[in-house]
Amino acid sequence: MYRTFHSKVGWWYWLLMGVTAFLLLDFFWFHHTVLMILTAVAMVFEIEMLIHTCYILTEDGRLRIESGRFVPDTEIEIRSITGMRRVKSCSLAPALSVERIEIAYRKEGKENAVQVSPRHAGDFMAWVQKKMNADNKPNTE
User: Distance (Å, rounded) from C-alpha 78 to C-alpha 61?
Assistant: First the structure.
């Protein structure tokens, strides 16, 4: 069974979208064509991330992080996760809120970390922990 968690959207992201929409209208109204096109492209990216940022726990023991069609997906094997903690951050990450979960994991012998902002952080952490525990159990069959 897989589980999908959608990203929590913080006030700052709504503010960013509001400012972008205002600029788009302003550039359209005053016939600044190049600026209007650039702002429209930025708005498309923002809407795409708003709709499609989610975190999927798959049946085969992976966490897939999706941030829209224009950003490559990230996949982490659940068994490679070494820790999770709640953080508040404004750094660039596949997260639309400052209230985030930092996931530390090993990939190709290196320590990595990614920050996510699931809408229901407690449920997300419980599901990941449950999957980690299920993957670490010895197969008795």
Answer: 5
